[in-house]
Design a protein that fits this description.
alpha/beta, 343 residues, hydrolase, Glyco_hydro_3_N_sf, Glyco_hydro_3_N
Amino acid sequence: MESALRKAKPVNSDLLQDAHAVFLPAFDNWDIDAVVTPFLAKGGRSILVGESRAEYLARRMSDERRRTESAAFFRDRLDRLTGGRGGVIIAVDEELAGIRRLEGLVPDLPTLEEATTMADREIEERCYENARAARALGVTMYLAPIMDVVTGGNPWLKGRTISPLPAEVARIGSAYIRGVQRAGITAVAKHFPGYDRLDADPAITDVSLSTPMDTVMENARTFSAAIAAATAAVMVGPAPVLAVDGENAACVSPAVIGLLRTGFGFGGLIVSDDLDAPATMRGRSVLDTALAGLAAGADLLLIAGGPHLSSLCHAVAQAAGEGRLPPERLSEAAERVRAVAAR
């Protein structure tokens, strides 16, 4: 990790707790006790039980995971990780199409083919049954639904989106949100403001959305529908939207997050996409990207989990203590996360 993270200095304990609270570390396996236990003890409030890169690309869980991971195993591992404490967000990717981290562990969500022929109430009920079972496992947040309207080439979202028709994305996505939140799962509508086409995967390439502003805003109507359906959280995208901000990735852009807050009237939790994606970092360090995201208005920062997590949290608290990040912005973000975690 960069040298800035190794220069640990004493920091205010409240700032340090706040800094732990604003990170959502992602893990692709269960051998994580040594990182997660101290993270939660120091104020962490969220973890993402994720999938491997191979599973992400395949859009399905591996045969090995399906064979070894039962519902009882999943629930027991979460209990061990959290020590039975409440107030911790346990997030997973559970998309209508594409990535379903709970594949084989909970009742299936409707397929897209099914959803397009189902009434809204039927979709909502199927999503409720899925989420109710997930809640019994200890899961509290779905990083879904995907509300992007994809009409062109987009290797990042290929096989993961609901429809090329904004009205269908709005209808089906809103029913998903109502269903899972009725079961006690926080929905995270993603990836604001929507990426109708991208030339490459932002997780591996510094790529930007060049769609004209009028089309961006037209496609973003799906997020208005998600907000009307009372989504508790919105994830902002990982690549620059040039029509709004030519320099910064959406999830670290004051202009894009300001559009979500002011233009779309969203008052809930704002989640970043992967902070360590090339299209998000754009040459910045992970620390500077995290500080930029918080300063822009993001509340919960998605980051790869690992041994670097402790020093990253310390560095963010140190930055707030030195005034490089307004401490009140860090506190505001942490309080939003804790409020969602406490539900």
